[in-house]
Amino acid sequence: MASRCVTVASKERATKLLCPRLPGVGVVCTGMLLLAWPSIAFTDQTEATVTAETAIPSAATATAQASDRASSGKHGSSGKHGSSGKHDSHVDSCSNDLDCQLNGECIEQGSACPPVGPGPCSRQCVCDPGWGGDDCGDLQLEVGEIAYGCYPTDPLTCDYSSWGGGPPVWDIENRIWVMFQDEIANHCGLSEWSYMSTIVRTSSKHGPAGPYKKDEVVLGTQSHNAYYVQDPKSRKHLIYHVNSGTGGKAEELTGCTNGTTPRRFREELKRRRAPRPPRPDGVGDTTCEEAHDCLPPVIHESTSLSGPWKRVEMRGVYPPQFPTSNGGTRIRGALNPAPVIFDNGTVLALYKVNQTIWAMRAPDYTGPYEAIGEIFHPFAQGSFTEDPATHVLQEDPTLWRDARGNFHALMHPLGNGTGRGHGFSYDGVTWHWSDPSHRGRSAFHASISVEGKTIPIGDVERLRIWVNPRTSHPELLFYASGGQHQPVRADGVSRSFTVVQRIRTSNAPVRSTVAAVQPAPRLRTSHDAAHTLAPS
């Protein structure tokens, strides 16, 4: 398939182009995924080529805005005034698809629109299945269920604490759904997660939503934050995670029951949680992945979902610390990686650095990985400083693409007044943030059904979105929880579990499904980091 070329009105919008340059205008390639490295376009529909040296505002954004300007020129300035310049009764809720958070399309609505009527027309967001609201920013969720584990008040039908995982995958060989999840070893509770986490393979015959049962331990202690993805190029199954999975990080606790940690003397727990001295064979707490100080994510690979699993040897040279950026804050590690892998093997992943979300990329899953930079600004903040108010404090990202090739992300908020927001991007590099504090509401609300009652959930972590491969729509949201609060107490009661909430979808796009809600303020688009941080 040959690439198509479209013009963009600004030369600054595109550099290092793969299409011929035309006099006086910039040119952006569209069509198939661009294979150039390190200059990569991370999408395969109407996107800009993004250089590794400079983060360039998405040319697709410029194209959409140019289209909007052309449209508003037909019906008056910004679509809100007629050709006479007088104010008309119609009101626009959007000017382009970014105002719909890329969860829908900004489309002219009304019986007065051409060719039926003479206009003027109002522009409204028409949302994709699974999303609602005037700005398509409300994820439409059913009440949640336990996918793996037990609710704290349930009868003790399981003797473990789980802490999320996924997304699930269909095992075509065994005709079963498989989901890799975190589980605390020795029947202990989440209070011992930092040194007793394992990754287990679970399976379900009921469908991708589960419930799931445990098959076996795939990676022993210490391994945490399992995130499954398949490489389309090699067809290998990959588990991205944190920590090395080699054991020896700390002395494991025994005597736990029912997925909880019993009450013990504080000093005893403190001693057990302390890292062990380095072992003579070099295995244990000496690697950078245990200290979270290195960029390349830890990955295990297998040709079968049943294993065996092998640690991936990464290509590239990575310093223990990155160059100082982020407002002078020390930059550490690659926690909670959330990858998307393209047909040509290119990897884009979001991850956590210093309680903020960054992006990294690689030509294939073996590396070398390079940091793109921090990607989200709060509303009305245009640069990063040492002030926490200039950062979106989040962790545990989940990353996916929609049917149009756009990128989306949900995270777990860490504070600073940040709620459950939604990130979106045309190209995976230039991101925009739907700030809940400015919007007036969160992107979604978590709940679970317990004994016939719907209970709101406050603790929502390790998020994963499952996209139905047949429809390309997100249909399931998984997350780890302890209920109202993070279950990190060693009290013999606190237990963690994995929740699934179904996303309400339909065959037809939907208008707003949120009643009696004031229209959200127009979002101000945020730009990605000022420059790429490439390891030297």
How does this structure look, described?
- The chain is mainly beta.
- It folds into two domains: 124 residues, no CATH class; 364 residues, Glycosyl hydrolase domain, family 43 (Tachylectin-2, Chain A, 5 Propeller).
- Helices cover 7% and strands 30% of the residues.
- The chain is built from five helices and 29 strands.
- The strands form nine sheets. Strands 8, 9, 10, 11 and 12 form a five-stranded antiparallel sheet that branches.
- 48% of the residues are buried.
- The N terminus and C terminus are likely disordered.
| Rg over alpha carbons | 24 Å
Number of strands: 29
Q: How many angstroms does the end-to-end distance come to? A: 36 Å
Output mean pLDDT.
Answer: 74
Class of secondary structure makeup: mainly beta
CATH architecture of the largest domain: 5 Propeller
CATH class of the largest domain: Mainly Beta
List the main descriptive attributes of the protein structure presented here:
single chain, 536 residues, mainly beta, Tachylectin-2, Chain A, 2 domains, five-stranded antiparallel sheet, four-stranded antiparallel sheet, 30% strand, globular, disordered C terminus
Please specify the SSE layout and strand pairing:
Elements: E1 4-8, E2 26-30, H1 59-75, E3 104-109, E4 122-127, E5 131-132, E6 138-139, E7 145-148, E8 162-165, E9 169-171, E10 176-184, H2 193-196, E11 197-204, E12 213-219, E13 224-230, E14 237-242, H3 266-273, H4 288-291, E15 298-302, E16 310-311, E17 335-341, E18 347-353, E19 356-362, E20 370-374, E21 394-401, E22 407-413, E23 422-425, E24 431-434, H5 436-439, E25 447-450, E26 453-456, E27 461-467, E28 474-481, E29 497-502
Antiparallel strand pairs: 1-2, 3-4, 5-6, 7-29, 8-10, 9-10, 10-11, 11-12, 13-14, 14-15, 15-16, 17-18, 18-19, 19-20, 21-22, 22-23, 23-24, 25-26, 27-28, 28-29
